[in-house]
Amino acid sequence: MGYMLESSRINKINQMYIGAEIELLDQRIHQDALNLIDFECNSLIKENIKFGDKIFEEALVIERYEKANRINQEILVQHKKYDLLRTLFWLNSIEIKNKCDSDYHNLVYIYQYNEPSISQKAKQKFFSNLLLEIKDKKGNSVMLIPIAGDNNITSINLILDKYNITEFPVILIDEKTIITDVESVEDVENHLN
Fold first, then answer.
1. Which domains, and CATH codes, for the chain?
2. First to last CA, the chain
């Protein structure tokens, strides 16, 4: 019975991933076309925000499934796929923001996924709740992008090296500001001006 439940969860995640892959391909075509065709920036930004919100909501579903995972480890592979999708979304957000001179903020939350210590778990839970509060408060003016930093994915490792990120959790704001310690929402919001 438990195995059937896990298989059902994995099938749902696979379906979400296939849908997200199609949307991401659509986003990549928009990004490439941005260099060739003069798109209306408001439309690009609006679609990017919709895509970001969708993959964020799907990440919350995966998190719930992971917490209940007892039998099948395939769900961990699905998590890596979503980390890659979120990384591509982040890169797309950077390009759209630069091309369209948009004022939204990229808040990339990089955390330890594999065997965090008890203190890391507590800190990550605090960071996560704080960032959710900021997203709720700021809405579409913030792209909240959670990414596991310890899954040994080459593209993510290269990005971590570029920003000299070696410890988790970390909040990277607009590809400029790195925050490793925070006590309040205001500590992050002060960097969103």
1. 1-102 (1.20.58), 103-193 (3.40.30.10)
2. 52
What's this model's pTM, rounded to 2 decimal places?
Answer: 0.82
Count Cβ neighbours within 10 Å for each residue of 25-50 and write b for 16 or more, e otherwise: eebeebbeebeeeeeeeeebbebbbe
The C-alpha atoms of residue 62 and residue 156 are separated, in whole angstroms, by 20
Contacts of 79 (CB under 8 A, 6+ apart): 62, 66, 113, 148, 151
* Nearest in space to 87 (alpha carbons), one of 15, 34, 159: 159
Report pLDDT for 71: 41
Give the span between the Cα atoms of 141 and 31, in whole angstroms.
20
Q: What is the mean pLDDT of residues 124-149?
A: 93
Contact 185, 134 (CB under 8 A): yes
Tokens of residue 151, six digits: 């899954």
